[in-house]
Specification:
CATH architecture of the largest domain in chain B: Orthogonal Bundle
Strand content of chain B: under 5%
Order of helices and strands of chain C: HHHHHHH
Distance between the termini of chain C: 70 Å
Strand content of chain C: under 5%
CATH class of one domain in chain C: Mainly Alpha
Helix content of chain C: over 70%
Shape of chain C: globular
Largest sheet of chain C: none
Largest interface: B-C, 95 and 104 residues
Number of helices of chain B: 4
Radius of gyration of chain C: 23 Å
Oligomer: heterotrimer
CATH topology of the largest domain in chain B: Helix Hairpins
Number of strands of chain C: 0
Chains: A mainly alpha (539), B mainly alpha (135), C mainly alpha (186)
CATH topology of one domain in chain C: Four Helix Bundle (Hemerythrin (Met), subunit A)
Chain lengths: 539, 135, 186
């Protein structure tokens, strides 16, 4: 922090400046901003690393651009110390634009650590070889920067902006194989519909702003539902205001749903997942989705009772005609998981199958959102955070295997996975474990994640939640069919070739790491949930 | 003269340092104007609806982008109008709109780059006709 | 109706009518010009709302920048023999029209009926520009800095994606060779 002090001394404002607002700027804003910078270290480091990579790429010969991966990994590791240092702090930063709290810090660490396997897999991916990797790692780190901002934004301008940073970077990454037909088409679909979803979200925020006159996410709950600020006393007015809030909520949800690939904004996922480079597909299905859930948690947490100061479960933001927003989430959750699983049954391409599976998993994760603001043993935030880590381990594991196989066979069609059990015993065995974890079979991380999600909704009780539990159970059974199809293809069907598939050491390191995480999360689930994932949000 | 466009221009001219422009505070006494928040909201709702129609009906990527700009503009108008009539500080709404414009510029330039690239390789920019990916 | 009020109606008409006409136009160039009209109407409405800085930003960035970009896009994609087809399939047109109409009606209902907590507008006595400048570097400093990352990423991505590749060269090779042609520092 010495450097910062020097910087502060250098930046002292000249006193002679006179213009309206300068006094206020010098006396209140400026110290607050300088103080915030201290907590903003991790994001700054990621941004600096990204730009440094871009500049290094200019001076290094192109053959070395591949090795910028190591700089990118450094850029992901360095901020962790800052996050650890301020982990427990809970504070509003940059005059109400951002917040630092354990919740944000957990997700920042999640994005940084989760990006490391992505970078390693990019390094081993043969399809990315011989391309310009400087831009690639720059965009990748910028999107991590966006995701980190997302997890800690409390003002809808920051939220919208960080969502856009993540989205714009994802559009570029999806179209990175710009000369390949599928990739280019996927990028086109992704950017057009993504921008439209974001614009609709912007309109929702404008209605929101009109209702509250404030840009803070939690303002709605604070203005409308806390007893001391009750502003609409007449019933008629309350009903009309509730209608407006419903529209604002639905419009804003369109933007979030696009990010997490939930109904009704899921349609992009299969095309984009199939057309994008496989590494990018892994990134989208885990990091981008986790960022979406992080901001949804903060957004909906702001709507729940904790802010308005009422008893838990007693009061949440009611929508039009008294509908609880959690009911809407339950409906969306059931539809999303059912559609994802049903569509996955007929897929013959592994990437496309994983796309539908990721839609289904968004449905499972929405279960955790629907218990927000109720009294359960583990809060919705805890179960979602745990499930996201579990999902990271199994999904990255599966994609790592897919990339290593793709390196050799240049295909991700299930047809080509025939006989993989003989050709690559290690990879096939690992993929089987990840598949079992994705289904939710013990003793794997996926089992524990799903178990706690189920526990949560059963704890709450009431017919909507029981219905949700039944739907989720049926969906789990349904998903077993297509996941096990992969195992059957690998072990019980004879392929045309018997040649062994070699895989690179770095790739195998990722697979082993994910295997370890998959088992570790199962056996230490309870302590992780209780101690590590007790994520407080700054109010 | 009522505040509004005239005053806006006055403000601009005085910002630019034009001499002889009477200070805008001559118009500071707010006269009764029949134009209020509702008028702007109606404009914005109409344009939003049109934008949605454009997006559903048309299939050309550039036209879809035009619908997108319409939606973003309607949101921006809402922000400025609410800033003036609802929020405590009228500048805040304008700031959000300012950032919306920048975001729109970034998105539009990237989208057009992707469209150009796809046109060079496929010779079509109909979103649903990009067909090597099924549904 | 006072002069200022009639100015509002002029701009409101300019914003809505060209936007509506986009729906019934087939030529994409004409659409771009209709969009220009609509955006200009919005700029006028911003002026009417005492947001002079924003109004002129709208003119410069939207009309001067984004729209020109659109026109370039239209011209570049119409360069070859294959025209940019524009079709309104009846299967989508009718339900799309009514879906938009329904949404529009709901938003109009909200706009007119919702009890907005309005206050009389604050009279504007001095230019906004210094205030906006100070706000950009105080309250909004974080978005202001973050947007620079967004713009940088979009710029890098756009130049990467739209780059013309050497014809006939295999993909990976093309990446290597045309980067040399660009005069890369080595």
């Amino acid at each position: 922090m010495h450097l910062l002090n020097h910087l502060q001394a250098l930046l002292t404002l000249p006193v002679a400046v006179t213009a309206p607002g300068v006094e206020q700027f010098r006396d209140t804003f400026y110290p607050a901003i300088i103080d915030s910078l201290k907590y903003f270290g991790p994001e700054t480091q990621v941004a600096v690393a990204a730009i440094a990579i871009l500049l290094l790429d200019l001076v290094l010969p192109i053959q070395f651009s591949k090795h910028l991966a190591w700089a990118a990994i450094l850029g992901c590791l360095a901020p962790l110390s800052g996050i650890g240092h301020y982990y427990e702090d809970s504070k509003s930063l940059f005059l109400g634009m951002l917040v630092i709290d354990p919740f944000a810090n957990f997700f920042k660490a999640f994005f940084l650590l989760g990006s490391i396997p992505v970078i390693m897999l990019s390094f081993v991916s043969r399809k990315l070889e011989g391309r310009r990797m400087g831009e690639y790692y720059f965009i990748l780190l910028s999107s991590v920067f966006g995701a980190m901002l997302m997890a800690s934004s409390t003002h809808f301008l920051t939220l919208f902006l960080s969502l856009e940073i993540l989205s714009v970077c994802s559009y570029i990454l999806v179209g990175y194989f710009r000369t390949e037909r599928k990739g280019a088409e996927a990028a086109l679909k992704y950017i057009i519909y993504g921008s439209i979803a974001a614009a609709i979200m912007g309109y929702g925020f404008s209605l929101w702003y009109g209702m509250t006159g404030s840009g803070e996410i939690s303002s709605l709950a604070r203005v409308f539902w806390s007893p001391e600020h009750e502003i609409y006393t007449e019933r008629n007015q309350q009903a009309l205001a509730a209608l407006t809030v419903t529209f604002a909520f639905l419009f804003v949800f369109v933007g979030f749903a696009y990010k997490i690939a939930a109904i009704p904004m899921h349609f992009w996922a299969p095309d984009v997942y199939e057309g994008a480079p496989t590494v990018v597909t892994a990134f989208l299905s885990v990091i981008s989705k986790a960022a979406g859930f992080a901001i949804l948690l903060r957004f909906l947490g702001g709507l729940s009772s904790s802010v308005s100061g009422l008893a838990p479960g007693d009061m949440a933001v009611k929508l039009w005609a008294g509908v609880d927003w959690r009911l809407i989430l339950i409906v969306i959750s059931i539809l999303t998981m059912t559609l994802g699983n049903l569509a996955a049954l007929w897929q013959t391409n592994l990437k496309r199958l994983m796309a539908y599976s990721s839609i289904a998993h968004a449905g499972y994760l929405l279960m955790g959102l629907s218990i927000l603001g109720t009294a359960t043993r583990y809060t919705g935030t805890q179960t979602i955070a745990f499930y996201l880590v579990a999902y990271l381990s199994m999904n990255f594991g599966a994609f790592a295997v897919a990339i290593l196989v793709e390196n050799r066979l240049n295909s991700s069609e299930l047809e080509d996975y025939k006989g993989l059990g003989r050709r690559a015993p290690f990879l096939a065995g690992a993929l089987t474990v990840f598949i079992f974890s994705l289904i939710g079979v013990p003793p794997t991380a996926g089992f524990m994640g799903k178990f706690h999600l189920f526990m949560g909704i059963i704890d709450v009780g009431g017919w909507p939640y029981y219905l949700l539990a039944i739907a989720a159970a049926m969906n789990t059974a349904l998903s077993a069919y297509y996941y096990l199809k992969i195992a059957r293809v690998m072990y019980f069907e004879k392929g045309s070739s018997l040649e062994l598939i070699q895989s690179s050491a770095l790739g195998r390191v990722v697979v082993v790491g994910m295997l370890f995480l998959t088992f570790y999360l199962c056996f230490c689930a309870d302590s992780i949930l209780k101690t590590t994932l007790n994520l407080g949000m700054h109010v | 003269m009522t505040p509004g466009l005239f005053q806006g221009l006055q403000v601009v001219l005085s910002t630019l340092g034009a001499e002889g422009v009477p200070a805008a505070n001559a118009a500071a006494t707010v006269l009764e104007s029949s134009i209020g928040l509702h008028h702007y909201l109606v404009v914005s709702a109409l344009v939003f609806g049109i934008g949605i129609m454009v997006i559903i009906i048309r299939r050309n990527a550039i036209v879809l982008l035009m619908g997108l700009e319409l939606i973003l503009n309607s949101a921006g108008l809402n922000f400025v109008a609410f800033g003036k009539y609802v929020a405590a500080d009228r500048i805040d709404g304008q700031m959000v709109t300012l950032f919306l414009i920048v975001i729109a510029a970034a998105e539009a330039s990237l989208a057009l780059a992707i469209i150009l690239n796809i046109f060079n390789s496929l010779n079509t920019i109909e979103v649903d006709e990009a067909k090597s990916l099924k549904g | 109706m006072s002069f200022s009020d009639s100015i509002f109606w002029v701009f409101a008409t300019t914003a809505v009518v060209p936007a509506f006409l986009i729906l019934f136009t087939r030529s994409i160039v004409r659409m771009a010009f209709l969009l220009l009209g609509s955006l200009a109407g919005f700029a006028g409405l911003y002026l009417q709302l005492n947001a002079a800085f924003l109004g002129f930003t709208q003119v410069m960035v939207y009309i001067g920048g984004i729209l020109i970009l659109f026109l370039f896009g239209v011209m570049l994609t119409q360069r070859s023999d294959i025209p940019v087809r524009e079709k309104v399939g009846p299967a989508l047109a009718v339900p799309g029209f009514f879906a938009g109409l329904l949404l529009m009606a709901a938003l109009l209902f909200i706009a007119l009926q919702n009890p907005w907590k309005t206050h009389p507008p604050v009279p504007v006595t001095e230019p906004d520009t210094p205030v906006i400048g100070i706000k950009l570097l105080s309250t909004y400093i974080l978005p202001f800095e973050a947007v620079s990352i967004l713009l940088l990423a979009a710029m890098v991505g756009a130049t990467y994606i739209a780059r013309v590749q050497a014809p006939g060269a295999p993909d990976g090779q093309a990446e290597l060779s045309d980067s040399n042609a660009e005069g890369r520092l080595e």
